[in-house]
């Protein structure tokens, strides 16, 4: 629970914090309007919180900046792989080897969009917390020296949510903000992605696109393509990653964003969904092992959601509509098997049907050997 160690803060201006049913005037929180005796799940599980003098934590900004810079370094480093894969269009005229500047620009066209999407996502949560005066840390970015170069980012929320409204707004703020930034990033990537007519080599990593990317393809270039038919611009990989992160966070389990939203919408009935959704994750793990990793992490962190002080008051109609939008975002961002490793090289590639049409020019068709994929 509300992390009692957080209540013992050494410095900063004092802040008074207490139970919502406390004596009017004694607490920062407005008194609960109802006068009947009420035992909330919060009080049942943790007892009535005592009046505490609560100095606000002094943020360790240097740590947040350091983690951000480290994550910028690891995502740019991993971005060089995507840039080399996409190499021909980054080459200066007449050159056949990518110079350092071209490589760096290509890598940054992956890392900067990825960090922008993650930053927007975390700011969505953080600003919602600030709006409600909930004590929350700035984003911690997690550098990771493989795959996308990061394991995402998170903020620490140091106070319990008082009602469903706060829980919902803080929970949904991140995915909406990340989704809104991921779409134009993916659109830019789609417009700069190139056709690849060579068969994929063994060890090639293939992206399976979510509906959002397929729909953007149709909208922007008039037809769709699969990852096997193209060499993705690094920004398309970034947009794909942003949508993947959005979908993963919207899984309605535990303390993921989707878990917060489900709790806010379903109230105490959210517990009924816990095991079925975890079971679904276990089944999906048969196709993509990453879901098992996520399931284990969720089990380690704990599936139990800290109870709200008031879980009975229903959510308003406007927020229920936003919850429907969250379901929409999940559907268009989610892919059960996001990545696939090609183990056996396939035979000669069949040209994509679009190559005979006119629209393919928008994909900047080159057929030189440099377009073969590099293994990442
Ligand atoms: Zn989130």
* Uncertain spans: 1-37, 348-376
Small molecules (ligands, ions, cofactors) in the structure? zinc ion
Tell me the number of structural domains.
Answer: 1
Structural class: mainly alpha
Number of contiguous helices:
10
Give the overall average pLDDT.
77
Helix content percent band:
40-55%
Keywords:
two-stranded antiparallel sheet; disordered C terminus; 376 residues; 45% helix; disordered N terminus; 8 strands
What does this structure look like?
This protein is mainly alpha-helical and 376 residues long. The chain has one domain (61-371). It has helices spanning 41-46, 61-85, 100-132, 164-191, 211-221, 234-249, 257-266, 274-284, 290-301, 317-333, and strands spanning 16-17, 52-53, 140-143, 150-154, 194-195, 205-207, 230-231, 339-341. It has a two-stranded antiparallel ribbon with strand order 1-2. A hairpin with a 6-residue loop joins strand 3 and strand 4.
């Amino acid at each position: 629970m509300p992390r009692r160690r957080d209540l013992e803060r050494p410095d900063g201006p004092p802040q008074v914090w207490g139970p919502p049913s406390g004596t009017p005037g004694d607490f920062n929180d407005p008194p609960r309007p109802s006068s009947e005796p009420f035992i909330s799940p919060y009080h049942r599980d943790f007892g009535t919180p005592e009046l505490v003098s609560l100095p606000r934590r002094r943020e360790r900004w240097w740590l947040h900046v350091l983690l951000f810079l480290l994550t910028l370094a690891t995502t740019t480093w991993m971005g060089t792989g995507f840039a080399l894969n996409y190499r021909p269009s980054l080459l200066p005229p007449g050159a056949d080897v990518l110079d350092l500047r071209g490589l760096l620009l290509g890598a940054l066209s992956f890392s900067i969009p990825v960090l922008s999407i993650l930053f927007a996502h975390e700011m969505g949560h953080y600003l919602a917390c600030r709006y409600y005066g909930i004590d929350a840390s700035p984003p911690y970015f997690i550098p990771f020296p493989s795959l996308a170069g990061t394991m995402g980012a998170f903020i620490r929320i140091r106070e319990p949510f008082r009602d469903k409204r706060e829980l919902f707004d803080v929970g949904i703020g991140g995915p909406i903000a990340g989704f809104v930034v991921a779409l134009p990033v993916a659109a830019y990537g789609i417009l700069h992605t190139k056709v690849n007519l060579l068969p994929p080599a063994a060890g090639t990593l293939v992206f399976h696109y979510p509906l959002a990317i397929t729909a953007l393809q149709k909208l922007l270039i008039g037809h769709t393509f699969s990852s096997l038919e193209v060499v993705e611009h690094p920004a398309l990989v970034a947009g794909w990653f942003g949508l993947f992160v959005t979908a993963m966070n919207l899984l309605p389990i535990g303390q993921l964003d989707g878990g917060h939203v489900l709790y806010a919408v379903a109230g105490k009935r959210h517990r009924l969904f816990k095991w079925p959704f975890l079971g679904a994750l276990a089944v999906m793990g048969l196709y993509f092992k990453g879901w098992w990793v996520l399931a284990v992490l969720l089990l380690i962190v704990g599936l139990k959601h800290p109870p709200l002080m008031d879980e009975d008051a229903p959510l308003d109609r406007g927020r229920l509509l936003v919850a429907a939008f969250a379901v929409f975002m999940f559907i268009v961002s989610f892919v059960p098997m996001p990545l696939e490793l090609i183990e056996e090289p396939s035979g000669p590639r069949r040209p994509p049907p679009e190559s005979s049409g006119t629209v393919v020019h928008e994909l900047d068709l080159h057929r030189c050997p440099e377009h073969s994929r590099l293994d990442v």
